[in-house]
Amino acid sequence: MHFGLTIFPTEYSISMVDLGRAAEERGFESLWVSEHTHIPVSRKSPWPGGPELPKMYYDTLDPFVALAAAASATSRIKLATGICLIVERDPIHTAKLVASLDQVSGGRFLLGIGGGWNLEEMENHGTRPESRFKLMRERVEAMRAIWTADEAEYHGDLVDFDPIFMWPKPIQKPHPPIHVGGGFPGGARRAIRYGDGWMPISGRDGDISERISQFHEMAREAGRDPATLEVSVFAAQPERDALARHRDAGIARVVLMLPPNPRDQILPLLDDFASTMNSVA
């Protein structure tokens, strides 16, 4: 089982250069960053994590910029979005960003995606909340075409373009792995339909370890080999017993969450996480 880290990168948290180096030195497999382009003042949409939206949601750096900084200072650790809000991004532009980051990182990028919970935020981008999951699927399919075809085209209900040239292509073939966020069963179904992995949030749907057999059965019913679909538990609790259950259930990756704190507070926490990782792995 792999161990990753996630953080909301902000101007007041540890720099991505320092975090990337420190995480790689301690043997973590991946580093994931969150995304919100903005937070509408209305705040009508309830945050799934509680009544008050933490300040870090308002302050995130662009994930591709943050990961490019980490890529410049590392050589082994995988770099990932957790999650990239595909429903708020142009697919052609995003396909180029993904391919570019995969190039500058030497083929170390993982694309974690999701439909999002903040309805006003996505509406400001012209996205209708009721059709966001269809839009997300079509944008993923369109980006796959861009990454894999010399003359790419896509014709869907919500995404439509005639043949285009777009380079660079990603280093990873056919493209960087796509990890689809979301709960059970909706997120699991979307991951099976067009993803390379499923990424549920710890604690949102009970013990994810108990869902693995159902997820695998859903995959087989859809004609997918469960072995080709990684399960990554996002924001996993850094407790040895819980992590050991995930390991024993065959979960591929757990992602531990860091607060958006400065370097002198993050490094001791990384040491604690590394100790837990080594005792469980």
CATH architecture level-2 label: Alpha-Beta Barrel
Low-confidence stretches: none
This entry's quaternary arrangement is single chain
Major beta sheet, strand line-up: 1-2-3-4-7-8-9-10
Report the sheet with the most strands, covering strand number, pairing sense and barrel closure.
8 strands, parallel, barrel
Tell me the fraction of residues in β-strands, as a range. Answer: 15-25%
- Average pLDDT confidence is 97
Rg (CA only): 18 Å
Helix content: 25-40%
General form? globular
Structural category is alpha/beta
What number of structural domains do the residues give? Answer: 1
Order of helices and strands: EHEHEHEHHEEEHEHEHEH
Q: What is the CATH homologous superfamily assignment? A: Luciferase-like domain
Identify the CATH class: Alpha Beta
| Straight-line distance between termini | 7 Å
Q: Count the E strands.
A: 10
Reported by name, the CATH topology is TIM Barrel
Number of helices: 9
Quickly describe the structure.
With 281 residues, this protein is an alpha/beta fold. 37% of the residues lie in helices and 18% in strands.
